[in-house]
Design brief:
- By secondary structure, the protein is α+β, with helices and mostly antiparallel strands.
- It has one domain: Winged helix-like DNA-binding domain superfamily/Winged helix DNA-binding domain (Arc Repressor Mutant, subunit A, Orthogonal Bundle), CATH 1.10.10.10.
- It contains 5 helices and 2 strands.
- The longest helix has 14 residues.
- About 20% of the residues are buried.
- The mean pLDDT is about 90.
């Protein structure tokens, strides 16, 4: 791997590594969700969820679509979706331990 790729990947992983952002990505791998939906699952404020979504959007990890008064968030990059699915298989299996 070239240095530029390593630095880019390190920045991406750093963005994803925050516990709230990682939980948001875990939730978004199955379906699109609104800020309100995410807030209920993550147990924090709308403002906090929105701030984390903005960081993920700025890195190109997620995107959104508007439908009337609702904004639906989803994982944009299929590589991130694949990474999240791999993390789920490795660390979220029923028989870990």
């Amino acid at each position: 791997m070239q240095t530029e790729h390593i630095e880019s990947i390190a920045g991406l992983l750093k963005t994803m590594s925050h516990p709230i952002r990682l939980k948001i990505l875990c939730l978004l791998q199955d379906r699109e969700m609104t800020v309100g939906d995410l807030r209920e699952e993550v147990k924090t404020t709308n403002a906090n969820v929105s701030q984390h979504l903005s960081i993920l959007r700025n890195q190109g990890i997620i995107s959104f679509r508007k439908d009337a008064n609702f904004i639906y968030n989803r994982i944009k990059d299929p590589r991130i979706l694949q990474l999240m699915q791999t993390l789920r298989k490795l660390f979220c299996a029923e028989n870990i331990g």
